Amino acid sequence: MKNDIMSYFEKDRFAAFVGLKLVEVKPGYAKVKMEITDKHLNAVNIVQGGVIFTLADFAFEAASNSYGEVSLGINANISYFQPPKGKILIAEAKEISANKKIASYNVDIYGEDKELIARFTGMVYRKKDKLNLD
Length: 134
Hints:
The protein has three helices and six strands; from the N terminus they run ααββαββββ. The chain is an alpha+beta fold.
């Protein structure tokens, strides 16, 4: 199912548009990479906060849907600690708790030197529907 999930998320048009690449996914976990380009910078010449949120949200989406069941975000929060210094960002999503209907995740966003840039927390509602992996 791992390859099916990877292929499923490669169809995410917005993630592709922004430049996100799903590196790894397994039950309750996902890792996403992004190369920072000029289009990701804001007027102060640092990565726009919404770009970092989008990176974290995509990792959250992949990790929470990694079981093959439709999981929809119902809450999300992000704290920014410092601007990235390099050209690469990595988001690593990990499941913290889960039951049949609700699951919680932490997503840490790192720069290329492993410095912690931001932390995203999110909660999903798990539906009974299965992902369409065809």
